[in-house]
Amino acid sequence: MEEPEALPTPKPRRPKAFLIWAGRLLLVVVGFFLAFVMAEWLTRISLPVFSPNIYKIDSRTGLVTYIPNAHGFYRKSCFKTEVSINSLGWRTGEFTAQKSEGVYRIIVLGDSFVAGLETPLEKTFHKRLEKLLNDYFGDMVFEVISLGRGNNGLYYDYRYLKDFGVAYNPDLVIIVSFVNDPADDLRDMYGPREGRLFTMDDDGNIVDDYVSEREGIMLHIRSTLRRSAFIKLLYDRSSDFVTYLREGKLPLTGEEALQGINENLDFAYALEKELVFKMKNLAEEKGAKLLIFNAPYRKQVEAYVNTGEDYYYVGSYSHEKMMEDIARETDVSFVNLIPLFGQNFRTTRESFDYTCDSHWNETGHAWISEGIFSYLVGKFEL
Q: Which fold would CATH assign to domain 91-211+256-376?
């Protein structure tokens, strides 16, 4: 009997080309993901950033705001502060959008000195002020609501009041103004980091100009990416590089921006005056009053202690003098708190800001709350 012919040994199957490329692509994706996780971790532990980022771009207004119910930490070498955002998207205590009957509601607007992210919430001046008022007026209930955010100038104060604050039906609106507010407003007018937010027409009227640059899917993508500390760092640095390529220089430092105000002093004055006037009208339309306090800065207080002068000049620019003149022209009360800080510092020699940061520490917040409280109960009709 003949042996059956042996069947040929089948050749091993080779993976299809697309499976090979899919595997390689998967390895690349996993590698990039692990690298991103490592970069995010290193950014959060090595830089003074929020962990995680607590900001977003509001889809309705195009403004940078807080993420509702966000929670994280802000740290530098001399502090580590737990930061929580309430359900309405503000770094303040919980409150209802609809004001309860019998409540006297105060809204505070301003920049990072008002936000007070370096200091525990219960130690910030607005929470201290709320307690002082409620303890003093036993038959009234006060709510002091902070709508402050870092990098806000008067334009952001105006937009926060217009787009959010008036809906909370305030009885009093307090602006805490800082020396770099005009520089922040010029930045928001000309960009480029957050894009242009507004312009001024030939008659000096402010025209909001933000929708076209912030609508659509790109807004949501940018808002989502901002939650990453590493991506936000790359975005900020790349924006600086684009500015350098376009203008031949990096974005101005705070001191350089203040020097730049001297070159545009009349324009900056007209801009800030128009913004104060618009906020006054918004407040009065809701039956509320408007007050302006300044935010004392170390150099201003040192100038007062050393010379007795309560103005800190950069070239020909004095923010306190500017705001005092604007308040007089718009019929708004302005209170200069530099003398209070100077007198307290002379008496106690206690530091009112952080050693690693120029913002107020708990002592500074206590002095601000006492200064505003004293004015409200002594010279103002609530």
A: Rossmann fold (3.40.50)
